[in-house]
Amino acid sequence: MRINVCVLAVCTEALILSTTGCISDNPAPEAQPNSPQAIESTASNQSTQANSFRDAVNQAMEAAKLAQTAKTSEEWTKVAASWQQSINLMKAVPEASPNYETAQKKAVEYQTNLEYAHQNIRTTANSSPSPSVVALPPHRVSETPLGNGKRIQVDTNNPQLTHDECSRLAANYSPTAGQGGQIVIQKPNPDAPWNGKLLPFCVDNLDGKGVFFNDFYFQ
Question: Is 40 inside a domain boundary?
Fold first, then answer.
């Protein structure tokens, strides 16, 4: 079922500074206001503040881009993660930054986008199950708290579990894991020295990088 969404445009000016700084591990005498050390320190602080704001803007643009094509709960989870990261970066802009007031306003605006993404996660998760969900291989599930989300451990007894089956299991439980969560899917390796021990076959940290596989455990 296709879901029509309204994507909130992100209109933020990116501040790019080309100044560079140098930080020494050894303590130095207090610099005078107009000394090279003081000028260099000020430039470094301004560059750090600009980078924080610029990173927040870039993350918001990425979230808006993902929202334009998101349809499944897994895709909306990635959208929500991007909005949350942008909000965190906006809130981290220091008061001394010229972008401070803008950053705080954007953090509030993006909260609405984040709630919209969460709403779509719930909507798509409650939709009729697709054939891929029905065809999930037999497994057991356990949950533990992890940050703002949950660590979902999925144990299977099939040593022949494929990459595709592992990815579908991860996609199925990503809404349950939530923002800041993790999904670990295990299968047994009957060969020595593992002797049937369950090992993590694939992992999704829900950071937008997708599922990665620990094939070296099963070679």
Answer: yes
